């Protein structure tokens, strides 16, 4: 008889329950608040918004926190669209949302928020109100010219009351716990901050007065929900701008309010003033903000949670084992892989897709008001995805190309029951992503290959490396469908011994390096080489660099670039010469950039000849990724996913 295998979790602490007031959470991994604009104009929940949160509950998070729900909509709407907890019709949507989260065994939590002086009250349904008045702790004019008025006493009272009413409402809707947002620069933090709170009444001045609004809000919330209903408070551990509060001040605040709460959620920074402290970029260590939770935890007895670029099971287990925190939160990691907690619990950590911190999620929200993730093609269509077609008859699908687009296509097709063979010309999978191995801050992009390979193996995809797909090969294989994902080939404006492509960055020679091309790839290559101690000059023909980076990623990258490299725009590379790289400026004047090695990063072009030779070789042919149009990782994965779905 087969011996039963005893299950022991690889990360026992992460998988262990924790009690908060009258609620027991099933593990220590919580989905951090993430708000998205797919709400109605009045701030009501949509079916799409509910499906978004439900995905994370199904993925095994102990609690799923709904992002910014505004308690006092007239003055506190924190974004163009935020949940309006004062709308007379909000209850049904909230109830359906709480049910959608709870039916998967996760606790339903919701963040109560008020934007204060940063409220988007000038963006009312369908119009931009130019002279809308914003309210904050004190009179102020913001850098964008918005006028902020000091909140009168009656308004403070009304807002405190609105928190109590909102708390009663979310409890009635079936939420298991709630989070009061006192960080990231929103209203409560504006009152806590000596930089913005210059009031002279009982809400300003000393630390206790500045904490008064928080205490009154927490008291109103507690009165509404009772003692068994967990109240979580989210704070920023320090304000890194001039005059802001310090970690020491945050500790004093935590001591002051801990008797009023059941869980202290320690974040950092503010949306407006220190975005990358709140949302650590790929240039920062995973878990760089855990030190704040660790420090604060020494001074309070209430459970403490840590956040900031977390997602690595081993690191999260260590955080709890070392006593740095009792709970870990993840936002972006659960966008990329909503099933991360379930995989941790089931010892399937080799299937976890890592967030690459590309900021596409946050930038796209600003750019098009939609929700996307570079690596997860379901994000933004969670509701529809539940109705994706299953194949009526399994087919033989041949995938040409083992880059991210090809791998995603293979995974999606195999997941739908097709027999899939993936061929890759090289001896390793990964395509253009393979070169990220060399760049420490892109390591999570490189690790995508191993995770996708593992997932393909589990899905039954047959992988044939070292196998080039030609028209003859396709005819011989006679698949029902062919997915062509053969990638692009680099454009080389100069040639010579000392020239390498960005993909071969590891082989660049010498200490002085010229990088040709100031797009995303070139900028990242330049920063990486400079981090390795090389003297780097980046040459770009256009006037700006990193123009193809998204709005959230660009400032982080450009900051690194200018701090570490010499950057020359308006310069065209002509050829290599013994002393370096000869370039020409817009006036036609030549200039030698002294360099021992040159990296070409001016982009690639689709492998059109190969693609053309494969057209019409199978009854269904789909083209995916750079071999159609050179774009980015997200496009390759997105097209691969849909090609796999369409068969
Ligand atoms: C798409 C997105 C939406 C977010 N929305 C909210 C929100 O509504 N409320 C909030 O307090 N924080 C919000 N955040 C911040 C996260 O809760 C979290 O603090 C931050 O992303 C850092 O965690 P991470 O490194 O795990 O992503 C959002 C973050 C992302 C990526």
Helix content: 25-40%
Number-wise, the strands total 31
Taking the sheet with the most strands, its summary is: 8 strands, parallel, barrel
Low-confidence stretches: none
Radius of gyration, whole Å: 27 Å
Fourth-level CATH superfamily of the largest domain: Aldolase class I
Task: Give the CATH class of the largest domain.
Answer: Alpha Beta
Q: How do the strands line up in the largest sheet?
A: 3-4-6-12-13-14-15-16
Please tell me the overall pLDDT: 95
- Tally of distinct domains: 3
Bound molecules: flavin mononucleotide
Structure overview:
This protein is α/β, with parallel strands linked by helices and 647 residues long. It folds into 3 domains: 18-383, TIM Barrel; 389-490 and 606-646, NAD(P)-binding Rossmann-like Domain (Rossmann fold); 499-602, FAD/NAD(P)-binding domain (3-Layer(bba) Sandwich), CATH 3.50.50. The chain contains 22 helices and 31 strands. The strands form 8 sheets. It has an 8-stranded parallel β-barrel with strand order 3-4-6-12-13-14-15-16, surrounded by 6 helices. Strand 13 (231-236), helix 8 (247-257) and strand 14 (263-267) form a beta-alpha-beta unit. The chain is globular. The chain starts with 17 loop residues before the first strand and ends with a helix. It binds flavin mononucleotide. Residues 32-35, 67-68, 111, 181, 184, 267, 278-280, 307-310, 330-333, 361-362 line the site of flavin mononucleotide (FMN). Residues 32-35, 67-68, 111, 181, 184, 267, 278-280, 307-310, 330-333, 361-362 line the site of flavin mononucleotide.
């Amino acid at each position: 008889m087969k011996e039963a295998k005893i299950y022991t979790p690889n990360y026992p602490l992460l998988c262990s329950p924790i009690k908060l007031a009258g609620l027991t959470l099933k593990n220590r991994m919580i989905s951090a608040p993430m708000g998205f604009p797919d709400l109605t104009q009045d701030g009501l929940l949509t079916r799409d918004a509910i499906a978004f949160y439900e995905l994370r509950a199904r993925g095994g998070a102990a609690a799923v926190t709904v992002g910014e729900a505004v308690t006092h909509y007239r003055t506190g709407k924190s974004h163009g669209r935020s949940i309006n907890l004062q709308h007379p019709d909000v209850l049904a949507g909230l109830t359906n949302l709480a049910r959608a989260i709870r039916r998967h065994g996760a606790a339903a939590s919701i963040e109560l928020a008020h934007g204060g002086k940063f409220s988007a009250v000038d963006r009312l349904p369908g119009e931009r109100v130019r002279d809308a008045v914003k309210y904050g702790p004190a009179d102020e004019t913001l850098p964008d010219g918005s006028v902020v008025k000091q909140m009168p006493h009656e308004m403070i009272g009304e807002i405190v009351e609105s928190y109590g009413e909102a708390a009663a409402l979310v409890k009635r809707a079936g939420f298991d716990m709630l989070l009061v947002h006192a960080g990231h620069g929103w209203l409560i933090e504006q009152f806590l901050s000596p930089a913005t709170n210059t009031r002279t009444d009982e809400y300003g001045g000393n630390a206790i007065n500045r904490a008064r609004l928080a205490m009154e809000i927490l008291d109103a919330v507690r009165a509404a929900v009772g003692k068994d209903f967990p109240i979580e408070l989210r704070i920023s551990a320090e304000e890194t701008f001039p005059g802001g509060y310090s970690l020491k001040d945050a500790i004093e605040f935590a001591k002051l309010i801990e008797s009023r709460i059941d869980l202290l959620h320690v974040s950092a920074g503010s949306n407006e003033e220190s975005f990358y402290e709140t949302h650590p970029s790929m240039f920062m260590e995973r878990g760089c903000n855990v030190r704040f939770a660790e420090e604060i935890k020494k001074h309070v007895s209430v459970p403490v949670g840590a956040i900031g670029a977390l997602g690595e099971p081993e690191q999260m287990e260590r955080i709890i084992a070392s006593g740095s925190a009792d709970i870990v939160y993840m936002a972006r990691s659960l966008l990329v892989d909503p099933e991360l907690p379930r995989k941790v619990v089931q010892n399937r950590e080799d299937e976890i897709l890592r967030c690459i911190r590309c900021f596409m999620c946050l930038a796209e929200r600003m750019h098009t008001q939609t929700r996307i993730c570079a690596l997860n093609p379901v994000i933004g269509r969670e509701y529809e995805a539940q109705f994706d077609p299953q194949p009526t008859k399994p087919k033989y699908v041949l995938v040409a190309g083992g880059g991210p687009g090809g791998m995603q296509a293979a995974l999606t097709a195999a997941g739908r029951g097709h027999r899939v063979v993936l061929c890759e010309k090289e001896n390793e999978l990964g395509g253009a992503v393979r070169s990220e191995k060399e760049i420490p801050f892109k390591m999570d992009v490189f690790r995508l290959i191993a995770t996708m390979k593992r997932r393909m193996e589990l899905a039954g995809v047959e992988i044939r490396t070292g196998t080039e797909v030609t028209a003859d090969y396709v005819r011989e294989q006679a698949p029902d469908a062919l997915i062509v994902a053969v990638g692009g080939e680099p454009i080389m404006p100069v040639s010579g011994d000392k020239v390498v492509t960005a993909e071969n960055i590891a082989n660049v020679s010498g200490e002085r390096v010229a990088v040709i091309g100031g797009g995303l790839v070139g900028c990242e290559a330049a920063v990486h080489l400079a981090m390795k101690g090389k003297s780097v000059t980046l040459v770009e023909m256009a006037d700006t660099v990193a123009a193809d980076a998204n709005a959230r990623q660009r400032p982080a990258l450009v900051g690194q670039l200018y701090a570490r490299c010499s950057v020359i725009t308006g310069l065209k590379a002509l050829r290599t010469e013994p002393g370096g790289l000869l370039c020409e400026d817009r006036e036609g004047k030549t200039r030698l950039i002294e360099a021992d090695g040159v990296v070409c990063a001016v982009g690639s072009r689709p492998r059109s000849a190969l693609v053309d030779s494969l057209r019409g070789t199978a009854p269904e042919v789909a083209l995916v990724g750079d071999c159609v149009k050179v774009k980015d990782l997200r496009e390759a994965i997105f097209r691969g996913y849909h090609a796999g779905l369409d068969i």
